[in-house]
Amino acid sequence: MLEKVSNPIHPLANVQVKKLEITAKMKEQIAEQQDLLQRAQSKEKVDKVINSMNEFLKPSNTHLKFEFHEKLQEYYVAIVDDQTNEVIKEIPPKKLLDLYASMTEYLGLLVDKKI
């Protein structure tokens, strides 16, 4: 009279779920690749702007140099004399960045510690 149902889920339903998981992973990988491509394009644009600025500064015997501030994890620009390799100006000034980094570190110590 009554038959016992041993497997209520059809194998086809399992296949569809797996396809959806692969599609989500593929979309994530595509998004990551697009992000990397945009970064590469923006890096090329930055390089192009730097080269044009260096060409503009050539008559004044100076060039731009991008330096990385370790504590803030950000770049700043230094204008360097071609003949003496002396830094003429930093934008923003490194001392100001150092001060900002030490202030954020000090504030972090005050706020992050439990009393």
Automatic annotation (TrEMBL):
The yes or no answer to whether the keyword Cell division is present is no
Task: Tell me which UniProt keywords the record has, alphabetically.
Answer: Cell projection, Cilium, Flagellum
Q: Which Pfam families match?
A: FlaG
- Keyword Ion transport attributed: no
Can you say what this protein is called?
Answer: Flagellar protein FlaG
Origin species: Oikeobacillus pervagus
